[in-house]
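note to self — DONT lose this again. spent like an hour looking for the file last time. sequence + predicted structure for the chain T wanted, 112 res
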Amino acid sequence: MPSNYPDRLSHLRDRLDMSGEQVAERVNIDRSTLHRHERGEVLEPGMPVVVELARLYGVSVDYLVGESNADGLTTHDAGMQEIIGIYRRATFAQRRGMLAAVRELRAERDDG
């Protein structure tokens, strides 16, 4: 398990299979700024950025900055993060297909 802020950023981005550009866009920072965070070149990251990154990755700020080793994710949450990552990378048509499949599964569950 990564133990410091830069390593955790990279690990969490990889876990969601998101590009640096996707993450930067989601937290409203420049891609080069994100990469500086991931390389450890930002010695005192601003709290708004850290909070947005933690929110995006579904972990606590304490975990993200290395103050805690408990990321707060259950196995269920980790699976949901994977689904969200897949959805974020999908085209519009693929997203419609995913939504249709989820609705079908929900209908089957409700009928059963």
